[in-house]
Design goal:
single chain; Rossmann fold; two-stranded parallel sheet
Length: about 325
């Protein structure tokens, strides 16, 4: 690392977001340290020779001090859904370990990826946990930027893969009532843009910042757009109000490769709208050159990325339990 160069630590570097954020930070000229419980999983990463790789585990405080030393910006991208019996308690414990280590070694800023959610209503365990983690970071005294995003559209994103597999496999479906709820998807490239820019953005205070793509649509509409882009006929979707989150998660587990421990929290989170409420992100991070990517274009890019070409020739995407949305 040269004098004056910003040094970033990416936790969860083997995850869906983290693995792609590392090269985005490197391309901006930052020194990057990638942290993983099992560093060997990064041996095949295309950027491996350009980044420093270290072992670290958010549940092991003693491993964090060394990983955080010399770091300006810590990216908090680890989630415990599907990997911990009580993921809410584990995520709270991990957040407190992170702020303790960051304060101890003098980390300048923490950037955390959280989820869009409505205000003043009961939240699912998943969204309530993410909100709590954000609050812990904001109240820590370490400067914090919490980026709140909804469904991330990209090949391998758990939320997008749920849309993909439900639509691919079910020409006609009875669905829970949340199929009529509003969502504001964002492309993976735009999420990476905001996260990378958050390392140096001049923020007035530690707080949350909502981000989202230009399109707000119903969850069912998102499935219909996917079907059209993928060359499928329009899907018949019938919403049934009596389908509980438990039944819905079983249903998702039957027709998608999403593990049950991840499917249940994701399904619970769909019980409320996921749209932007704060619209002042442009004041600290201007939109990317050319503007934000629309949902249809983001879906097209996701299918192109994994080699989808036509009906019947789709590659099955396996979702790991720890993959964030």
């Amino acid at each position: 690392m040269t004098d004056g160069q910003i040094s970033c630590l990416v936790t969860g570097a083997t995850g869906y977001i983290g693995r792609q954020l590392v090269p985005a930070l490197l391309d901006r000229g930052f020194h990057v340290r990638a942290m993983a419980r099992t560093p060997a999983k990064l041996c095949d990463a295309p950027w491996r020779s350009r980044a420093e790789v270290v072992r670290g585990d958010l549940t092991e405080p003693e491993s964090l001090a060394a990983a955080f030393t010399g770091i300006d910006v810590v990216y908090y991208l680890v989630h415990s859904m599907g990997t911990a019996k009580d993921f809410v308690a584990e995520e709270e414990r991990c957040a407190r370990n992170v702020v303790d280590a960051a304060a101890q070694v003098g980390v300048r800023r923490v950037v955390y990826l959280s989820g869009l959610h409505p205000e003043g209503v009961p939240l699912s365990r998943h969204l309530a946990s993410r909100t709590l983690v954000g609050d812990i970071l904001i109240d820590s005294g370490v400067e914090t930027v919490v980026v709140q995003a909804g469904i991330v559209v990209g090949s391998g994103s758990a939320s997008f893969e749920m849309i993909r597999h439900l639509t691919d496999r079910l020409p006609a479906m009875t669905t829970p009532k949340w199929v009529r709820n509003k969502i504001q998807p964002i492309s993976i490239d735009d999420v990476l843009y905001y996260l990378a820019a958050a390392a140096t953005a001049a923020v007035p205070v530690s707080r949350t910042w909502d981000v989202g793509g230009p399109d707000v649509l119903e969850y069912g509409e998102a499935m219909q757009v996917y079907a059209d882009v993928a060359g499928l006929r329009r899907r018949l979707i019938i919403a049934l109000p009596f389908l509980t989150p438990t039944i819905a998660s079983w249903w998702v587990g039957l027709v998608t490769p999403i593990p049950p421990g991840l499917a249940r929290p994701l399904v619970e989170s769909l019980e409320c709208d996921a749209v932007m409420h704060e619209h002042d992100i442009d004041a600290v991070i201007p939109p990317p050159t050319g503007g934000l990517t629309g949902y249809r274009d983001a879906v097209t890019a996701a299918l192109r990325q994994d080699g989808t070409t036509s009906r019947g020739r789709r590659r099955l995407i396996r979702i790991s339990p720890a993959a964030p949305q």
